[in-house]
Write a structure and sequence with these properties.
The protein is α+β, with helices and mostly antiparallel strands. It folds into two domains: 131 residues, Immunoglobulin-like, CATH 2.60.40; 163 residues, C8orf32 fold, CATH 3.10.620.30. It has five helices and 15 strands. The longest helix is centred in the middle third of the chain and has 15 residues.
Length: 323
Amino acid sequence: MFYSIRHSTRFRYSDSVRQSVMEVMMHPRSEGGQSVRQFEVTTEPRARIFARRDFLGNIVHHFDIPSAHDALSVVAEGLVEVSAPRLLPLSGHVKDWDALDDTVRAGDYWDFLHPSHFSRPTPALKKFAAEIEWERRDDPISLVQHLNKTIYESFAYVAQFTRADSPIDDALEARQGVCQDMTHIMIALLREVQIPARYVSGYLHHRSDTSDRSIADATHAWCEALLPGYSWVGLDPTNNLLATERHIRTAVGRDYADVPPTRGNYIKTRGKGSSEMKVAVHVSPADVPRPEEIEPVGSAAWISLPDSALNMSDDWEEMAQQQ
């Protein structure tokens, strides 16, 4: 299946800024059943854009705008081919635990087995783990699918309930959140039973015949678990899905802190000011014309950036997007 993707992010500032430096992580990965056929990033004001790979193989574009500006637009457009992943059975064998442990001992999975910035054990996580009687049992394949369904049934999806920097306790205590929260919770629980788990940032193509809870025309997040005989398997607890040909992978990391779509800094011209961000995402089958301009709908309106990122004068400030 071919998909056309347009991901537009706009920042506007109450006062002009002297300089912006930004990293963009919107380039889909080419591996396994996914292949990037075309991709480009453009900015306004125009900038010379460079690319590098990070320590996990994600492609990161970065640029610098050294002149004064009161708005910044970043548009990423791509054409991606995705094939259906290998089917996962409903269950495996109890001996698969031994096979998994052997795989872990033979490889380098430290980053995906230990606590990270957002996916870490907390009292609220331990309470939830006890509630669902979370422990190693049965086999790894059936256990991860059971957890995927359990999180789906235990948490309501509520757009914008949390922020990009919210800890998992906010969602655990309210039993609601967004895909980012449910993914972080699932990753933390998988690591507790020594199943390597990582965060996936990307997009989910919504069809009229599906009942996805996550919002269309937005970025999406899910997790991948290392399973014996299958390598990394994608699980989407927000929608109680195994990753399908509708899931388009952009970047992988220990958690969201490794893979925000945009991360940057700017220097103000003077004093305090305010900043807003607006994001628009459009994913469609490649035979459907891509709109020239996609305006955000629903929750994707102008979002005021937090005061903590706006109270500086000549210091750096960070900008990020929530999934």
